[in-house]
Design a protein that fits this description.
By secondary structure, the protein is mostly helical. It has helices at about 35-45, 50-65, 70-85, 90-105, 110-125, 130-150, 155-175, 180-190, 200-215, 225-245, 245-265, 265-285, 285-305, 305-350, 355-395, 415-435, 445-450, 455-465, 470-485, 495-500, 510-520, 525-540.
């Protein structure tokens, strides 16, 4: 039985419980509140099928209402957050979600503000900022569990289901097909199915079904009962979708039907569903779904022995992956800077009187002593790790994590033995070439240079190196720079930023984190220890 290897991006339905505005006041542009609310609702209808048109209309409403701080302005900000999420612009999605959240809180609209926490959590997880994502989701879960206990109505149940969905989404972005991922998907689906059958509710139920099905399809092993359940969930969702048609939902149902048939080795049925999904994904301008469908089409054509079409879809997948990676990388850097700026500003905004200042100084003195003790212990621990690394280098042993049999993999399928040997041989050559210090190296670019697909390459690295692609590249880079530091004294004089750049890392921070994780010593301490020992040896 084939396994799904695609890194599927969940779709979260943006469901707002919007009540019509009946006030007839004029806004600053001369339009009534009724008119602007009508424009916003029209943009909402266009959201999934024509996002560019939805964006133009929503932005117009935003400009008309931005000085009024009313419900239409909040809903429009939330709508813009979802539009930018669909378009892959996490920076703007978070920006508008935070604006909407603040306005909802001012208006005492708790469920709406929780909606925004979910969007913010989702976008942070796409950017790899998992601590911020979980923190926002914890706040949302706490609020909605309390509200459902107080009143078990459709609004509260739907937002609770969405909040569980968000938690499972975070685990999925962390590439963890774990019990927690299945658990939160199940909780989301079970709550979604409690909702009354309305167009909005049924659309959310279909999306929740897609997410749960996708989780089961990515499991390494599935029971016959689970496989049967997958088909039943999909069949019910497709039947419901026909009652209330929606192109976005139809696209993801087609994709997951394709995944189901692919795992059952029914290539013809899988191909039909994937081609339909691709057409629909292009129609609704969902770049993430387009990428994932191209990957699965490449694998399907490979199974059907059609190398020309396999290569075509593999190239399309690589192009879209690169486009998404560049967009997310740019947005990540922006959000990290924003978070740091917020932390710095928050301290200086509030004025403290002399008594509080004195207390803070006392606390800081206590903390500084505690930090000093902690750093001393940390330094001893790091020195012990440093000695182990130096000992390995002197014995000409690899400093990389040894490969064991304890492999935890997100998704695996069978790679032909001859193809696996070929990829392993090319990986050996790659490791010896130092090509891994190229900043632009990626799974897709390396797969292309190996004349294979990303699924095969990722699986071989997971199975034989006991790590994912990013960790594999990071460890090669750290091993490279550690050997340079040990064997060339000139490198001990370089700044950390220079070492990061030479070894292929995009920033000082990512290099420091990878270095510490790989060998258990920060780069600055490693250099300090090595410099000290080098001077002692020279003096002796």
């Amino acid at each position: 039985m084939k396994k799904i290897v695609t890194s599927f991006k969940y779709v979260f339905l943006f469901v707002m419980m919007i009540s019509g505005c009946t006030a007839l006041a004029q806004n600053h542009k001369g339009l009534s509140d009724e008119k602007t609310e009508e424009m916003r609702k029209k943009a909402e209808v266009l959201l999934y099928e024509k996002p560019d048109q939805a964006l133009q209309l929503a932005d117009k409403v935003y400009q008309l209402t931005k000085n009024e701080n009313n419900l239409t302005f909040a809903h429009t900000s939330a709508l813009l957050a979802e539009i930018y999420s669909i378009k892959g612009d996490q920076k703007k999605s978070i920006q508008y979600a935070e604006t909407a959240k603040k306005t909802y809180e001012d208006l005492d609209k708790i469920n709406y503000s929780v909606d925004m926490l979910n969007i913010i959590s989702r976008e942070y997880s796409v950017l790899g900022l998992f601590n911020q994502a979980i923190q926002s989701n914890d706040m949302a879960l706490s609020a909605m569990k309390s509200r459902v206990m107080e009143e078990s109505n459709d609004d509260n149940i739907r937002i609770l289901a969405l909040t569980y969905d968000t938690r499972s989404y975070i685990y999925d972005q962390k590439m963890e097909v774990s019990d927690s991922l299945v658990k939160y998907n199940e909780l989301s689906y079970q709550n979604a199915m409690r909702l009354k059958q309305t167009p909005d509710n049924m659309l959310y139920q279909q999306m929740s079904a897609n997410n749960l099905v996708n989780t089961y399809l990515k499991k390494k092993e599935r029971s016959e009962k689970e496989t049967k359940r997958v088909f039943e969930i999909l069949a019910k969702a497709r039947g419901d979708e026909k009652k209330f048609p929606n192109k976005k939902s139809e696209a993801y149902l087609a994709f997951n039907f394709g995944n189901y048939y692919f795992t059952q080795e029914n290539d013809q049925s899988a191909l039909k569903e994937y081609l339909n999904a691709l057409s629909l994904a292009q129609h609704v301008e969902d770049i993430y779904l387009q990428r994932d469908v191209h990957e699965m089409l490449a694998l399907t054509y490979a199974s059907m022995k059609n190398p020309d079409k396999e290569l075509y879809h593999q190239k399309k997948y690589n192009e879209l992956s690169k486009k998404i990676h560049l967009s997310e990388k740019q947005n990540t850097n922006t959000e990290v800077t924003k978070i740091q700026s917020k932390n710095e500003e928050s301290f200086f905004k509030t004025k403290r009187n002399l008594i509080i200042a004195a207390i803070i100084i006392g606390i800081l003195l206590f903390i500084s002593v505690w930090i000093g003790i902690r750093n001393y212990k940390k330094s001893k621990r790091e020195y012990a790790n440093y000695k182990k690394i130096i000992e390995k280098l002197q014995k000409k042993e690899s400093i990389l994590t040894p490969v064991t049999n304890a492999v935890v993999e997100k998704t695996i399928f069978s790679v032909p033995t001859d193809k696996e040997k070929e990829i392993l041989h090319k990986l050996d050559q790659f490791e010896g070439s130092e090509a891994f210090v190229n900043k632009n190296i990626s799974l897709s670019s390396l797969a292309e240079s190996f004349n294979t697909n990303t699924a095969y390459l990722s699986t071989v690295i997971n199975a034989n190196k006991n790590k994912n692609f990013n960790n594999y590249i990071n460890e090669l880079r750290i091993s490279y720079i550690v050997n340079k530091l040990k064997n060339d004294p000139q490198y001990l004089k370089y700044k950390i930023s220079h070492l990061a750049e030479e070894s292929g890392f995009s920033s000082h921070n990512t290099f420091t984190t990878a270095f510490s994780n790989c060998i258990g010593v920060s780069p600055s301490n490693f250099i300090k220890f090595l410099t000290k020992e080098t001077k002692i040896s020279a003096g002796g």
